[in-house]
Design brief:
By secondary structure, the chain is of the alpha/beta class. It has a single domain (about 5-200), classed as Maf protein (Alpha-Beta Complex). Helices cover about 30% and strands about 20% of the residues. A 6-stranded mixed sheet has the order 2-1-3-4-5-6. β1, α1 and β2 form a beta-alpha-beta unit. α4 (about 175-185) crosses α5. About 35% of the residues are buried. The protein binds inosine 5'-triphosphate. Inosine 5'-triphosphate binds next to β3.
């Protein structure tokens, strides 16, 4: 039985990425959770040296829960391209370099893909909810689609301008945030977490 989080609980959002923070806050808003970001609390960014999304989500959530004494939620996510053997994957943030320039990261995807016919791609989000006593609960969501070039749209963040989900013709960056929240990898992982830890 998963450990539950009460409505009205204080939760630290263990991210320093403003795009993610915006999406996580919107996804939590209807559930009566008081959310504070790791950035607002001045928590340091731990080294993300696990080989997979779950491992990195656990590192971030446990670091924030231990440092703050509050339950903490971390999201480790990435953009994966089939023809690049799943890259950039866990290195998605690192492909943007120290300047966090996703125009550079998207151009690298396009260059490495070249004229490859296989355009399949997907986003993954691993969520970890951690308590200060070291207990963790983890959830994962994935959405499949394709890489497009050139980038289109100004909404969202990261690789959104070059991803079209299977079904809609718009990139994630052309969708209104509410439309992305219905189908995204993050929303799918959230739905599991809400069912398991909030009883929704
Ligand atoms: P935190 O670790 O502080 O949360 P980060 O940006 O370093 O922030 P990750 O290590 O999980 O986070 O890197 C994930 C990267 O994958 C992120 O920087 C985005 O570029 C990309 N990404 C994840 N979800 C995305 C989404 O919904 N849309 C576009 N890009 C996304």
């Amino acid at each position: 039985m998963a450990r539950r989080l009460s409505r009205g609980a204080n939760l630290v959002i263990a991210t320093h990425n403003p795009g993610k923070l915006r999406e996580i806050s919107a996804l939590l808003a209807p559930h009566g959770v008081v959310a504070t970001s790791a950035g607002d609390l001045g928590l340091p960014e731990p080294e993300e040296d696990a080989p997979d999304f779950f491992g990195n989500a656990r590192i971030k959530a446990l670091a924030a829960a231990t440092a703050s004494g509050l339950p903490a939620l971390a999201d480790d996510s990435g953009f994966c391209v089939a023809a690049l053997d799943g890259a950039p994957g866990v290195l998605s943030a690192r492909w943007a370099g120290p300047e966090k320039d996703f125009a550079v990261a998207m151009a690298r995807v396009n260059t490495e893909l070249g004229a490859h016919e296989d355009r399949r791609a997907w986003f993954v989000a691993a969520l970890c909810l951690a308590w200060p006593d070291g207990h963790t609960e983890t959830f994962i969501g994935r959405i499949d689609g394709a890489v497009i070039w050139p980038p289109r749209g100004t909404q969202g963040f990261g690789y959104d301008p070059i991803f079209v989900a299977a079904g809609p013709a718009s990139t994630f960056a052309e969708m209104e945030p509410d439309a992305k929240h219905v189908i995204s990898h993050r929303a799918l992982a959230f739905a599991q977490m809400l069912r398991s830890c909030f009883g929704d």
